[in-house]
Amino acid sequence: MTKHVLVPVDDSDRSRQALEFVFEEYPDARITALHVIDPADFYAATGIDGGAMANYDQIRENHETRANEILERAREHAAEHGLETQFETDEILGGVSRSIIQYTEEHDIDHVVIGSHGRTGASRILLGSVAEKVARRSPVPVTIVR
């Protein structure tokens, strides 16, 4: 029996579908929506190769604001399903797939449900790199929602 489900969330349709899947399939489980803020995105946003990060603090704040908005929408979605008492959210900073796996190990998670990515061209037949890495390395079962 699944007791604690982790759903990594971002702002994608697949992520929302994964959350909906968990609400329908695991209504009695404790559910954690996790958003990972990847610091590599801070560097990409500045366009600076090495050197000082002129707008690092502002960029990080923007990513944290976005994370809070994503997690708030997830909480609202859980409330719509009457699951707010067993639903929690968390955000962490780190590499996405590595952070999801580490979170799974450290928080007594027994199932991960993650959205797939890559819906155009040849990538349509491939899983997203994050979903694939989590599925390969996770210490618990992983369901990938397409």
UniProtKB/TrEMBL annotation:
<protein>
    <submittedName>
        <fullName>Universal stress protein</fullName>
    </submittedName>
</protein>
<feature type="domain" description="UspA">
    <location>
        <begin position="1"/>
        <end position="146"/>
    </location>
</feature>
<dbReference type="InterPro" id="IPR014729">
    <property type="entry name" value="Rossmann-like_a/b/a_fold"/>
</dbReference>
<dbReference type="InterPro" id="IPR006016">
    <property type="entry name" value="UspA"/>
</dbReference>
<comment type="similarity">
    <text>Belongs to the universal stress protein A family.</text>
</comment>
<dbReference type="Pfam" id="PF00582">
    <property type="entry name" value="Usp"/>
</dbReference>
<dbReference type="InterPro" id="IPR006015">
    <property type="entry name" value="Universal_stress_UspA"/>
</dbReference>
